[in-house]
Amino acid sequence: SDDRGVLGVDAMIPAGPLSVRVVVHLDAASVSDDEVRDIIEWGKSHCPVCDAFGRVVPVELAVEIG
User: Rounded to two decimals, what is the model's pTM?
Assistant: First the structure.
């Protein structure tokens, strides 16, 4: 995130993350590299965080006072 967006200093800069990077380190001697990649890709495609960051997600704000 860029603090200028978070603090509202620059309206052209978003308040949220500008990018996301996921790094997976895995050592699996009993399976091939292709199988490891397939397993990791499967995990990424079923990850709720990756899903939310990968598409536009509507945000609803409900304010209850009192």
Answer: 0.61
Average pLDDT over residues 38-53: 91
Contact residues for 17 (Cβ-Cβ < 8 A; gap 6+): 1, 53
CA distance 44 to 48: 9
Q: Is 31 exposed, middle or buried (0-12, 13-18, 19+ CB in 10 A)?
A: exposed
14: nearest Cα among 26, 5, 3? 5
For residue 24, what are the contacts with CB-CB under 8 A and spacing of at least 6? 40
